[in-house]
Amino acid sequence: MATPTIESPRSGRVSPGYSRTPGSRGNFEMVAWLFMRLSGAILVVLIFVHLYVNLVAGDGISGIDFGFVAGKWADPVWQIWDLTLLWLSMLHGTNGIRVIINDYAEKNSTRMWLKGVLYTSTVVIVVLGTLVIFTFDPCPVIDGVAHVADYCPAP
């Protein structure tokens, strides 16, 4: 009885269904895959430092209030930290949901609509979050009255 021979996996034969054409999206998917790994590693550091500063180093959850956020965002380092956390987490999550949509949405029209809603919501959240971080005013003037707290400069 003859034993069957198994070809080496790297023998160069590629199934026609998996052959790449010059216009294939393989490069984009590879970059998206790499982004997920790198952003995930960076997000672990960003999130644990964020949690430590907000919950462990201070007064815990009871210490987080308007004044805490105002004091934190008075420092540009924390603005950039929180902005990086927002952008990376939104892009990381959007890329993950995009992969899920590609895997489970069978019709092209369904896939198109789901991705449209995903991308629109991502842009809205990133833009609004960025505006909040950079336009946050801890010392607002409402109806001509300055609402001065102890951390605001005298009017």
From TrEMBL:
It holds the Pfam family Sdh_cyt. Residues 1-22 are annotated as: Disordered. It is found in: Membrane. The chain crosses the membrane at residues 30-53, 80-101, 113-136. GO terms for molecular function: metal ion binding. Gene3D superfamilies: Fumarate reductase/succinate dehydrogenase, transmembrane subunit. Keywords: Heme, Iron, Membrane, Metal-binding, Transmembrane, Transmembrane helix. One of its GO terms (cellular component) is membrane. This is Succinate dehydrogenase.
